[in-house]
Structures are given as structure tokens and as C-alpha cells.
Amino acid sequence: MVTKLIFLFLVGHVLSASIRLDLGGSDQWMFRSGNGNSTGMATVPGDIYADLLNVGVLTEDPLKGQNDVALRWIGRTNWIYERKFTVDKPMYSKDTVLLVIRGLDTVGDVYINNYFVLSSTNQFHQHVINVRRYLQPGNNKIVINFESPVNNADVSAKLYELNNAHFVPPDCPPPNYNGECHWNFIRKVQSSFSWDWGPSFPTTGIWQPMFIQATDSAYVDRLSGAVVKQGDNFVVNVELYIYSAVTDSSEIHVYIPKLNIDKKILAKLKRDTMNKVVGAITIPASKVKLWWPNGYGQQNLYDVTAVAMFNGESLRSETIQIGFRTIELVQDFVDPSDVLKGRNFYFKINGVPIFLKGSNWIPVSSFPARNFTARMEFLLESARDIGMNALRVWGGGRFEAEEFYQMADRKGILLWHDLMFACALYPVDGAFLSNVKEEITTQITRIKHHPSILVWAGNNENELAIRQRWWIVGSYPVGQQIKDYIKLYKDTIQPLVKELDNSRPFLLSSPSNGVETEEEGGVAVDPANPRYGDVHYYNDISNLWTPSTYQIPRCATEYGVQSYPLKHTMMQYINESQWFYTSSDMLHRQHKPGGVLTVLKQVFDHFELPVGCNPSIFNDSSCLTGNFMSKFAYLSQFHQAIAYQVETEHYRRWRGRLDETGQGNTMCGLYWQLNDVWAAPTWSSIDFNLNWKPAHYFARRFFAPVIASMLVKNNVVQVFVVSDLQTDISNATVTLDALVWDNAFDPVYSTRTTVDIKALSSNPVHFDASNPEPKDFVLRARVFDSSKKQVGFDGILLPDHLKSNANFGKLTIGNFYQKTETEYKFTVTAEKVVPIVWIDVADSVKDRGVVATFSDNAFAMTTAQVTVTLKVRQNPKKLKLKSSDLTICHLGNCGMTDH
Ligand code: BMA
């Protein structure tokens, strides 16, 4: 009680000796191009594209048509941002006046009243600098001269080549990306120079908040700290960053109100420096409620606040939230008597082995300075709601916004966190290494308190790139590439990360062989070896609906296949006349080299072609129509969904099982990719307009805690009941039915058996009866507990070839009613078995900003009627929905009339 009172008193105390002036806003900053041709008011935080749109220099959304190419000049231009601000008497009377910048994008010099203040070289750096001596009473001016990021990268690459007698690959992205070169030479979001799923928008601007903080005493910049378990206790290693105006000592209190903790730390602060004050709070583990990933328990979080008592003043930090949980990365040999079989690779959270189920996160937008709270919330909720427990923050993106980590903490989404290096080799000169060290120190310190962060990985695919010889550079032999790689990730980054954060594991790369990579010196002979660490797996040639296509890895952190957005999404960014698959706008958005043909081939290996069209003749005119494109877009999405199901279930079936060569014990399935930054054919399961693609609905079923997954081998069906539950299901009944297209909903074959389902494992279930030849059947497996309640969803296995022109009968939506403000219920009735049913809200409703998802969708109808709930996620105009606002189609007719 006493603690609480002190706490309230301190929080309420007026911070009289400090003055803050926010330098953000939309009515103070001006921007102009280096040559003075474009100019106007700017918004801070913001980016140059938003500013140019605001003032009308750009008249169209950069994401439309081929604007990324038309607007290339923006990234190749130097931009100047400036504003005036007033230093009033009270502020001028302070002798410490700090300029605090949370992020500049990217390379530029900052001046106040023509005095040079600092140079920015990195989008992920932050700056706190005493600028008192540059200030004057009254009017002051701050100017930031940004260099074009494209030119800067280009010049840096050339200089490096001159000094080191070799270039650092890659030079440029493939020409069809319409991207910029040498992203590896500038420390900004690597994909802002283009990627295979996104356009090139090399942003410039003041992308994070900026303010002036004047003080006579001190300014508390940041509270941070990681939580580790030691014996029976948790230890919160608190770090407080205080910029002090004077040399003095301070009494610091760190409060964790829920635990009634008031920890006193005495600190000696040095004048005119950022002081790092540390303290350890030891808490018996029995006193706390653990934080769990989604599906395993509550996401218990605790507020932590620090208050520094200073010269009679109390300076309060921002409140952070921490969680108590342990992380263990298990990498023991699968068979100690035969180490060549490889090592396990899985994570235990609070002692429970967790199968990582999820996807890969790319930046929420090409324009990350803008406010994307709602979009981010939607995407993370979409991950949580379908049972994901993990996302990989991919290394070509960014250290995310604070709110991203907060949402992941609250939703129980574990984050496999790459550091921001991707698909490239990097310079290793002194300047680059110190630049990177500051970046990593800043960012890890900023976010390490978040319980959702599971692991750091040094980069995306750079080890793989060396070994798979992605680039042959005569003057830069592989041996030297390896040496440089080791210098950057093993000798520089790894010790730094370990020093900054000993509360979670560090991996040199993703994918890597984990411990094996370390034992091989940092670059493994075969980083893609499925017996060690994680793998990324892509295949454009083989049948993706057949499990035998896939490896049996320990952990799959990337895999996927592309699909096209539906017409309604595309129509907001291209003209209707471009809605055919070889139109210049559609080709423009397909960055994956060869992607147009591989998607066509993949899709029509499983589905029938629309009558009359033969896309193997590339310009067959009957395929080059909007109708074909509409149908093809649906089919590509259905194909993607089934491929993700087959691959993910394959991984899940290998949970806790090894083959005779020691492969197996697979513990991760993170498909590539969750989200999109533009409307284009990509690997995402949620399109740019936030429509869940069929793959996302499939994921809800294939990521369910218990699945009944079928494997057909030599015409024999086996059912694997894979359980991520922590308790066994004894006396479960497993049923298997075979259905056909023309026997209504009556199975032509049924069998069942009773088994015990072991927790946290994959349980192969054998049937006594001989099973049917499964080629043309829809197979359905179900699991029931001992009280005859179904566990999980129907397991469905569709035939390898599906008649996408067939008539699957009439589908009817009925009994539509509003259940709550945001939920509607209805039934779907079918006449016969339908392989895939697709429900949607009508385009006219989407046009009014409605984003909705369904409790189930893209499902096989194997009973006459199912009940579905529609959940309205965004509804800016507060529309009331009617049953006529829904559309329904099936595999045979989706896209036949435009939806
Ligand atoms: C991997 C990723 C990304 C890429 C994806 C699809 O290489 O790491 O770089 O977008 O595959 O090609």
C-alpha cells in the first residue's frame, strides 16, 4: 500500500524543471528538392512521397499502375527539410537543450541556425544531442539536407570497390523489379529499393518523432531491460538511459505495481552524457504469472516504470511492459550414437516444446512513417485468430514500430527476429561496422524487453547465398566472401548481441544450421541441410500438392507459392483494360523472374483450363481476357491454399517422429508471407486490401491445435492425428470417410477406430480395414474425444486433379441475421459435395471500406448445410449488412461472372 502511494505521488509530480517542444506536425516543416523545383509543406513524422502527394506535385497514388517507375526521380533526388521553432525564455535559461530524433531516413546532415549538428547515416539510428550552444532566444531554424538514398548507395558502392578492388554483390536487382541498386550499401529498409514482392520506393524524410527537451537536471530517455530466469527466480535486468545536465547522484525507483515492487537504485550521473544506469530486480518465479504464446495460456504482462529522483525533482520514464517466460533452443543430437543424423532444432517456452505455427512478416507498408496502427492490428489479429503463434520479422524490412511489439506481446505471437540484412553480401570496412554496431545497440536496447521476441537471427539468406553461389564475382572469391561474412556476423554482431541481450538465443543467419554452422566456423558447407537448424524451401517445378515433394527439415521458416489478388483488389490500382495476365501492368507487378509461367503451370497442373484457352501458347488470345484472368486469380489462390496445407501438414506430421535416417522432429512451419505492400501476384495469404485469401482460411484449419491429416501412400490412407495440446486425448475415435461427387453427401466408404492421442506429438493412426483407392475421392478424417465431441476441424484431402469447370450444384445462403454489432450469422446449403466453397462480401460493400472475415471459408462442403459467422473488422460508414451483400461461388464457377 505504501509503495502504491509513493508511486502515485511520483507519477503525479509536475516535471517543472523540464520543457519539451515537439518538432513534429503538419504546419511547420517545409520541404524542397535540391534544385528547388518541388517545394511545399511537409509532415513530420512522414516521408517525401506523402509530402509530394499532399501538395499536389503527385496527383495519383504511387501504388497505382506503373507509378513506381514514373516516380523514380523522387528516390534519386536530394531533399531538404526545414522549419523554424521558437526558443522562449524559460527554454533558453536551461543549459542543456537536447535535440531528440527517433529516426531519420536516411543519409543527411542536420543544421541548427547554420551550425552543423549531426550526420545521419542510418535509418535505425536515434540521436540525443545537446544543441544548446547553437540556439538563440526567439526564432531558430533547423535544416536537414538529405542525400538521395539511391545516389548515396551508388557512390558508397563505387568507393568501396575502388578501395577494396572488388564489388560487393549483388549489383542491382533483376531488371523486372524496376528497382534500385546496392541496397547493401545503405542502412535503410532493404526492400525499399524493390523486392520480388514489392515496388521500389526509396523513401526520404523524418520518419520518426523529433522533439526538443530542455532541462536543468536530467532527461530520462529510455527504460529497457530483459528478463532472464536464474534458478527459482526471474531477474529483470533494468536499464535506464538518463541524459544528465549536471554531475550528481540520483535515487532511482523502479516500480512493478502488480508485484508491489519498488526497487531503489543509487546512481552517479555524469554531466552532459547519456548515462546508462543498471539494476537487477529478483523476483521469485512463484510470484509471477507466466507469459505464454497463443494457444498455450495467457499473455500475462507487467507494467514497469522508473522514476529518477534528482535535485528534488522526479523524472519519470515511459512505462514498458514485460513478461515472464523462459526460452530454450534445443539443439541436441537426434541420435547421440550416430551424430551424422543431425541435431534437433526447436524452442521450449516455459519448458513446453512449441511447434512454431505462422508466417513471415514484411513491412506493413512501403511508406512506414505513416500511421498504420489499424492495419497492423488487423494483420496481427488475423494471425492470432487463425491460431498462429509465431511470425518471422524478415531481415529485408525494418526493426518494427513499438506498437507492433506491443501487439505481438498481447496476442502471444512469438517473433523470430532477423537483423536487417537480406539477400546480399555487405561491406565490412570500419565505418560500416561501427554504423551497424550503433544500429544494433540502439534497436536491441529499444525492444529487448518484449516477451514476444523469441530469437535474433543475423540476416536473411546471406550464408545460403554464399554457398549456393548466387553471385560469381571474379575479384571476390568465395573464400574472401566467407571471411567477410564471418567478420560481420560472427566477429562483430554476435558478441554484441550477446552482450546486449542474454535472454534469448542468437543465430548467425536464417536459414542456418544453428550450432552446426557455428561448429563449421560460421558458414556451413550446406546451410540448407534439413538435418540442422532451419530451412527455406521453394520449388516451382514439382507437384506442390504431394508431400513427397518436400524436405523433412527440423524447422521450416520460409516456404510458399504465389497467387494473384482477385479482380476487385487489382481494380483499385490498374485499369480494367489491363486485367489480363500478360498486360503490361500485370507483368509489371510480377517481379519473380519466370513467375508468370510457373504460376500458370502450377495452377493448371491441378485444375482444368477454361474451355478454348491454352496458355502454353503464351499469347493465345482466348486466355488474354478479363474472364480468364478472373478465373485464373481464384484458381491461383485455391492452388496456393492447397499447397500451403499439404506442405504445412507434412511438417506437422513429422512432429516427434524420425525416419530411419534421422530426419524429422520438425517443429516449425512459417510460410512465406503474411502480408503485402502492393496489389500484385505474391506469396501472401492476406492481400494488400486486407482480404484473407483462401490460404489464410486454410491456415486456420491446418494450424489448429489438433489436426487429422491424411497421407496416401501406395493407395493406402493413413491418418495422422497431430496434437499440439499439452494433455493426451484418451479413447479418441478417428473416422475416415470417402465421398464422391455424385452420391450426395453419403460416403461411399467409412471406417473408424479408437486410439489414444498423445499430447505434443504426431500420432499415426492405422486402420484395420483395407482402404479405398483414393484417386477420385474426397477424403474426410475426423477426431472425436471420449465424449463424442469433435476435436478440431474436418481433415480434408482433395484429389490431385480437380475439375474446375464442373458443375458442383447450387449453393444457397440462408437464415441470415445480425448477431452482434459486428457479427452476422448465416447458413450455406449445398446439393452435393463441393471441393471448395468461397464466400465473399460484394464489391459494392468492399468499395465502402468494409473489411470482413468469415468463421470459415474456402472449405469443402461434405454435409448439406453449414453455419458461418461473418465478422466485420472495419466498417467506416457503419453499414448494416444484408444477405444480398454476400456472394458465394464454388471451384467450378468462381470468377465466371466477375465478383
Ligand atoms: C525468400 C525471402 C524473400 C523473398 C522470398 C520469395 O528469399 O527471404 O527474400 O521475397 O523468398 O522469393
Describe the secondary-structure layout.
Layout: H1 2-12, E1 18-22, E2 25-33, E3 39-44, H2 48-54, H3 67-70, H4 72-75, E4 79-87, H5 89-92, E5 96-101, E6 107-112, E7 115-121, E8 127-130, E9 138-146, H6 149-164, E10 193-195, E11 198-200, E12 210-215, E13 218-230, E14 233-244, E15 248-256, E16 261-269, E17 273-284, E18 302-310, E19 313-316, E20 320-322, E21 327-330, E22 346-349, E23 352-354, E24 356-361, H7 373-385, E25 390-393, H8 402-411, E26 414-418, H9 430-447, E27 453-457, H10 462-467, H11 478-500, E28 506-507, H12 515-519, E29 535-537, E30 556-559, H13 567-570, H14 584-589, H15 595-604, H16 626-653, E31 668-671, H17 694-702, E32 706-713, E33 716-723, E34 729-739, E35 749-757, E36 761-765, E37 778-784, E38 795-797, E39 811-818, E40 823-830, E41 834-841, H18 843-846, E42 851-854, E43 859-861, E44 865-874, E45 886-890
Parallel strand pairs: 24-25, 24-31, 25-26, 26-27, 27-28, 29-30
Antiparallel strand pairs: 1-12, 2-3, 2-4, 4-9, 5-8, 5-12, 6-7, 6-9, 10-11, 13-14, 14-17, 15-16, 15-18, 18-19, 18-20, 21-22, 22-23, 32-33, 33-36, 34-35, 34-37, 37-38, 39-40, 40-44, 41-43, 41-45, 42-44
Question: Can you tell me about this structure?
Answer:
It contains 18 helices and 45 strands. Helices cover 20% and strands 32% of the residues. The strands form 12 sheets. The chain has a 6-stranded antiparallel beta sheet. The protein has 899 residues and is an alpha+beta fold. A hairpin with a 2-residue loop joins β6 and β7. α7 (373-385) runs parallel beside α8, α9 packs parallel to α11 (478-500) and α15 (595-604) crosses α16 (626-653). Beta-D-mannopyranose binds next to loops.
